[in-house]
Amino acid sequence: MDQSNPSPATTPVERPCVLMTGAYPAWDMQPLEAAYRLTKLWEADDRDAAIAAVAPSIRAIATRGELGASRALMASLPNLEIVSIYGVGTDAVDLACARERGIRVTNTPDVLTGDVADIAIGLTLAMLRRIPAGDAHVRSGAWAKANMALVTRLYGKKLGIVGFGRIGTTVARRASGFDVDIGYFDIAPRADSPHRFFSSLTELAEWSDVLIVTVAGGAGTQRLIGADVIAALGPDSYLINVSRGSTVDEPALIAALEAKAIAGAALDVFWNEPNIDPRWLTLDNVLLQPHHASGTVETRQAMGKLVRDNLAAHFAGKALITPVV
Ligand code: 8YV
Question: Which of 198, 234, 254, 302 could form a disulfide with 111 if both were Cys (CB 3.0 to 4.6 A apart)?
């Protein structure tokens, strides 16, 4: 057989160029390396120079929820076709810019809902029952000298949920097993929910012993949990945030915690992550997590697969699996 003219099937196909804003786990990086030519921004000493060197060839951005893709980044990539987010939040991607340019955007909804709801419940229990303080009490040897101070119970309490979408409704389902009263705030009541709807966030905060924030981040929810809502919670109530740091007025929350104007706050998300306000570290009535609500092996594997499947669908000319734009 004549080998001089390889058949089209054996002609190497040029791998599309993908810009990655941040690292994914090794189990994603390997298949991504195999399918695409990757530019890894986190490895670049000079980020702008690294982008400029490959800009015309980049057809996709693979990003993470908190890293997103700004208008400036997209503007520097003239042949960008798709932004695929490893995360459900789209707030860090300039969706208006994507729409203007016909750039597709995908995210990873559903696969992380259960984990985020789990951490909301976990943070609530850990905060009210002071589980980290109990651990410290045992480790420090303080237990031999005195019993730990008494804490407060979860069951029987009033639990308010801000944002009653996928994550909020799943938190409600989880919380139902803890014998709590559940209320929620959203733009409209949900006909399929037995729980009490509040059209006023301040009224929900006044009613709640624990207020769990699950609402999506973005311009529309920026500082939604403001000084008024925090004041309405009062000195015996707790705030739990698993949404975005941007949804809470941080200076107002820190001031309320310092003054013991609310009982405590458990937070997975912050402004300026991961370089958070140092005042958080000085407070004894907070429980801090490193934006890790979706950080289980199972969920991160599912998120990575969904990013890869969306990119593969796009480059195969097929329908996107979880399109945002
Ligand atoms: C992830 C998130 O922590 O889903 C989101 O919007 O912020 C998180 O699940 C993040 O995207 C992983 O980097």
Answer: 302
